[in-house]
Specification:
The protein is α+β, with helices and mostly antiparallel strands. It has three helices and six strands. The protein has a six-stranded mixed β-sheet, with helices on one face. The radius of gyration is 14 Å and the shape is globular. The two termini are about 10 Å apart.
């Protein structure tokens, strides 16, 4: 069974993707940036962007029938290596007890205001 989850972001419709796809026991959450989807504003600080992205991922997982603790893999993309020290404490707080496999990469993102993007894979055996 395949279930598509949307946050209603205009990016999802324009680019033809889902915020998450549930396939069997897995939930694959697309790369999520730090937009506040209620106001469609992007905070300037990477800390706020990281917090927003993680909260969007958490809401998406809940809608899909998963929990944050079901995450087994995360990928972090940051645009500036010097931001890693600002991002680590925030993701560390979210994942302290979960301890998923993780990778952080320094890369460009599609809009200059985007400083962090996070994707996640969750697993919940049926």
């Amino acid at each position: 069974m395949r279930k598509l989850i949307s946050t209603g972001s205009p990016f999802e419709e324009a680019a033809g993707y889902s915020r998450a796809v549930v396939q069997g026991d897995f939930c694959f959450v697309a790369g999520t940036t730090g937009y506040d989807y209620e106001s469609m504003q992007m905070p300037k600080r990477v800390e706020e962007q990281t917090q927003n992205a993680l909260l969007t991922i958490e809401r998406t997982l809940t809608e899909a029938g998963f929990k944050l603790s079901d995450i087994v893999r995360v990928q972090y993309y940051i645009t500036d290596a010097s931001d890693a020290g600002r991002v680590f404490p925030i993701v560390g707080e979210f994942f302290a007890d979960i301890r998923p496999a993780a990778t952080m990469l320094v890369t460009g993102l599609i809009r200059p205001e985007m400083r962090v993007e996070i994707e996640a894979t969750a697993y919940r055996p049926s």
